[in-house]
Amino acid sequence: MGEKKKKIVKVIKVDLDKCNGCRACEVACSAFHASPKYSSNNPARSRIRVIHDPLRDVYVPIRAGDYTPAECTGRHIYTINGKEYDECSFCGVSCPSRDVFKEPDSGLPLKCDMCESDPPLVEPMCVQWCLADALTYEEREEEVEEEEKREEMEIGLESLAKKYGLQKIIDTIARMSMSKKGL
Amino acid sequence: MRYAETGFNLEIDLTRGSIERVATDPKETELYLGGLGTNAKILWDRVPPEVEAFSPDNLLIFAAGLLCGTPATGCNRTIVSTISPQTKLMAFSMMGGFWAPELKYAGYDKVIFRGKSPSLVYLWINNDKVEIRDASHLQGKGAVETGELIRQELNEPKAQVAAIGLAGENRVYFASIEQGHSSASRGGIGAVMGDKGLKAIAVRGTGDINIARPDEFLELCNEVLEYIKIREEKPIPGVMPILARLGSPQEMKIHDEKWHTESFMWGNSRHRRRDFWTEEVEKEWTETMENAQKRLISCYNCSLECAATISIPGIPTYMMKCFSKLTFTMAAMSDLDFGLKIAQRATEYGVDAFSTPQVMAFALELYENGILTDNDMPGLPPDNEERFYWLLDRIVRREGIGDVLANGTYWAAKEIGKGAEEYAHNNIKKHEQMPLKLSMLNPIYFLMYSTGEKINITQIEGQFPQMPFPTREEREEFVKDWFQVPDEKFKQYFLDWELRGENSFPYYPTVEMCCDIVDWQERMHYIDDALGMCAGLSSFPLKPPYHIHNYPKFISSGAGIDMDEARLTQAVKRYRTLVRAVNIRRGMRRKDDKPPENHWKKRFPELEKKLLDEYYKLKGWNNEGIPTKESLHELGLDYVSEDFIKRGILEDSEDIPSKEISSNTAQK
Predict the structure, then answer these.
(1) How far is A110 from chain B (nearest CA, A)?
(2) 3-class SS of residue B521
(3) Cα separation of A134 and A19, whole Å?
(4) Is residue B19 within 8 Å of B12, Cβ to Cβ?
(5) Domain limits for position B332
(6) Would you say residue A121 has pLDDT above 60?
(7) Considering only CA atoms, which of A94, A129, A97 is closest in space to residue A19?
(8) What are the tens digits of pLDDT across the range B168-199?
(9) Could you tell me which residues come within 8 angstroms of residue B8 by beta carbon, excluding any fewer than 6 positions away?
C-alpha cells in the first residue's frame, strides 16, 4: 500500500499565437546557464529554441527534453489548421538527427531544468524575459500514491500469470525443478 | 579576453578572393567604441577622398555594434558604412533584425569588403569557416527570396542572410540591403554592394559572447525590461499615437495615421491634405491593415513588435515596418491597399522606401509639366497606380528613363535639365528627405536638417519633444519623470516653451538652447550606432529605457571599459567629429549644411546664420564647419588636423583663426 505524496508539477505554457520570434528566451536561458552565471550567452547553448520561419508564420518555442542515442524510426511533420510545421517541430529531444539541444562544441546533450537554482527563481528565465507573454509559468500540486517499486522478475511473473493463470505457472515451475533434480 | 566584442574582423578582398581574420586593437574600442565609431576610423584611415563610391578601393563595411549579441534588449543592429554614390560623402545605414548578433556569435565584429568580384558571389560565414561562393544562379532574385534560397542550398535554416535585389545589382543609387524584415536602406549602400559583385552575406554563429561583469550587466538588463513594461503600459499623453510608446513608430500596431496623412506632403512632397483623415478613410485603412497583417513580429531580443508579416491575396507574403507603410501611398496620392501591394515588389527589388516613391512622383510631375515627354517614357500607362509600377520596374533595371531616375532626383534633374532642377526640391546634400513642407521655421530642426551627417531627420531627432505641449500643467506633468535628461536645464527649456507668444518659434528655444538640444539628440543616436542599439529603445522615442545615465554602466560592465558619462560624451564627440572629418575631406562645407529651400515658408536668414555659427562653435568647428585644430587636439584626433593642414583644409597656426583655404582636393 502506498502513502499519498504531494508533488509539484511545473508547467511552461506556450502560446504560439503570441510568439513574435524575438528569441529573448534563448538569450536569457543560455546566459543563466553559463558558468559563471551570466558571464556569456549563446543561443546554440539554449535549452529553449524557437523554430522560426516568418514567411510561413511558423513560431514554435520548444524546450529541451531528454537525450536519445537514436532517432525515431520515422520523423514527424504536423499540419495544424492548414499550416505545415517543420519536421520534428514539437519534439524537445536531444537527438542525433538535428543540431539543437546540444552544446555546439562538445556535442553533449542539453536539458531544460526549469532554471533550478538556490535560491529558486520566481519563474524560469525564459518566462521572465518573454514580454510577449507567449511563455507563461504555472505550478500545480498533485497527489500521487507512493508505490513500492516492483522488481523485473515480479513484473514478468505477474504478466505470465495473467496470460496463463497462476496455477499453470506453479505447475510448470514444479515440473522444471523436478527435471533439474534428475540431472 | 575581449568582452562584448569578439576582437576579430573579417577582411575580404573580392578582387583576389582572399579572406583574412584580423585581430583588432582594444585601444580602438576604448576610443571609438565600435559600430559606426570604428567604421569611421577605418574609412578615414583607408579610403582617401579621391576614392569614389564605385571604385574598387571603396570599402563596404558591415559592423555589428559593440553590445550586439549581449543580453541587452534591442541591441541587434548592423551598421553598414561606405562612400555613397549619390552624395559622394560617407554613408551609414543601420538595420535591425537578426544579422548582427549572428555575426558576433560567429566570432566577428565586422566584415570589411574591398575590391570587386569579377562575377556575382555571396559570402558564407559559418563560425570559423568562411567561403566566397558563386551566386550567378541568384542573379535577379529578390532580396528576401535570396535569403530563403541560400538557407535551402546550404541546408542551414538558422543562417541569417543580408542580400541585395535587382536594384542593388544594377547599382541604383537608392538600393537597399534587405535581411528578413529589416532593411539598411539609405545612402546607396546597396548600390556599392552590387557594384562589388556581392549578392549576399549569409552568417551562422554558435560561439559565446562574453560579459565582463555578469551580475551587474544582467541587473541593468532587468531594469531595462522593467522600464519597458512600465512605458508600454503608460503611453505618453499629448504626442501622436504612433510615437507615444517605444520602438519604431508603431505603424503596424496602430492604425491612426491622422498625423502623417494630414501633416506630411503627398505627391512629390507637394500637396498638404489637411482634412484627409476622415472617419471613412480611417475605417477603410483599418480594415485593409487588419486583413493584411498576419502577425506582429520582432527583432532579435526585443519584444516591441514593430514589424508585421503582410499577407495579401495574390501577392507573396512579406514583412514591413514603420513609414514605408505610407510612403508609396502618399507619393502616388493613392490608398493604403496600393501602398502595401507595391511595397512588396519594392522590398524584393531592394529599394529605399523613402527615396523611391519620391523619385517616381518626381518623374510623373516632370511628365505632367512637359519636361519629360512621351518620347522619354514610351509605353507609360494611363492609370496612375500602374504608372508607379511601370516606373519602379524600369528604375531597378536601369531601362530607358529608369536609368536616369535610378540616380535619384538630384542627379536625374541635372541630366534631364529643361528646368527639372526646380522639381528636385526636397534634397539635402543630393539626398531625398522626409516629405514635409511646413510654415514656421523650427530652429531645432533647422540645425538638425542642416548638420546631420546621416542626412536623415529620423536619425538625429528624438529626445526632445517636437512641439511644446499646449499648457504649462501638461508640460510640468511631462518633466516630472523625465530622468533621461543629461542635465536639469532641458526640463526648464521645455517648461518655458509655448505654442504662441514670446517663448515660441522661431526665437524660442533660444539659439543656445537649440544647440544644447540638438547636441543631446545627436549624441544619443551616435551612441546607439556604435553600440548597435536600436534607436527605438533609445535615441528615437521620448523617455526611452536607454539613456546617458545607464549607457556608461552598460559599456563598463559589458565590455569592461572604464566608462562614465563624461568619458562617453567625449568618446561620442570623438567619432562624431571623425565622421565630419571624413566628409569635410571629401569637400563638404558650410554651404552644404542647409535644409531644402522651401522646407519652411517663413525663413529667418539672420537667425539661421546665428544658429549655425553658435552650433559650429559648440561642436568645435570653425565658421566653415571644419573641426578646428584645437578641438581635434582635445579629442586626440591630431592625425586629422595634420591631414587637413597638409591638404590646405586648415591653416597650421595657433595665432590666426583657422579659416578655409579653397580646397580642390576632393571633387564634389
Answers:
(1) 15
(2) helix
(3) 5
(4) yes
(5) 217-394
(6) yes
(7) A129
(8) 999 999 999 999 999 999 999 999 999 999 99
(9) B21, B22, B23, B24, B107, B108, B109
Interface contact A45-B207, CB threshold 8 A: no
CA B96 to chain CA centroid, Å, is 11
Mean pLDDT of chain B: 96
pLDDT at A150: 84
Q: How many residues does chain A have?
A: 183
Q: How many domains does chain A have?
A: 2
CATH code for position B231: 1.10.569.10
Distance from CA of A56 to the nearest CA of B (A): 8
Given the cut 0.90, state whether the ipTM is greater than it. yes
B152 touches chain A (CB under 8 A): no
pLDDT at A1: 53
Could A31 and B181 be called an inter-chain contact, meaning their C-beta atoms sit closer than 8 Å?
no
Q: Considering only A154-163, B67-76, B281-290, B632-641, which range has the smallest mean pLDDT?
A: A154-163
Alpha helices in B33-113 (DSSP H): 36-46, 99-106
Identify the residue among A27, A57, A98, A121 best suited for mutation to test binding to B, counting B beta carbons within 10 A and taking the highest. Answer: A27
Tell me which chain A residues have a C-beta less than 8 angstroms from the C-beta of B300: 22-23
Residue B229 touches chain A, beta carbons under 8 Å: yes
Interface of B with A in 183-212 (CB under 8 A): 206-211
Round to whole Å and give the CA distance between A100 and A107. 10
DSSP per-residue string spanning B544-606: -SS-TTTHHHHHHHHH-----HHHHHHHHHHHHHHHHHHHHHTT--GGG----TTSEEE--HH
pLDDT at position B654: 56
Confidence class for position B401, pLDDT limits 50, 70, 90? very high
Residue A165, domain extent: 152-182
Give A104's contacts in chain B (Cβ within 8 Å).
Answer: 206-207
Judge contact between B304 and B166, C-beta under 8 A: no
Cα(B138)–Cα(B193) distance, integer angstroms = 15
The sign of the dihedral angle between the CA atoms of B653, B659, B664, B666 is positive
Shared domain for B236 and B117, answered yes or no, is no
For B53, the grid coordinates are 563610391
Task: Please give the Cα distance from B324 to B339 (Å, whole number).
Answer: 8
Tell me what the mean pLDDT of segment B602-612 comes to: 97
pLDDT of residue A181: 75
How many separate helices (H) and strands (E) can be counted in chain B? 24, 22
Q: What is the pLDDT of residues B430-443, one digit of tens each?
A: 999 999 999 999 99
Contacts of B344 (CB under 8 A, 6+ apart): B310, B312, B315, B316, B318
Tens digit of pLDDT for each residue in B250-290? 999 999 999 999 999 999 999 999 999 999 999 999 999 99
pLDDT above 90 covers what percent of chain B?
Answer: 96
Are B370 and B235 in a shared domain?
A: yes
Is B521 in the same domain as B578? yes
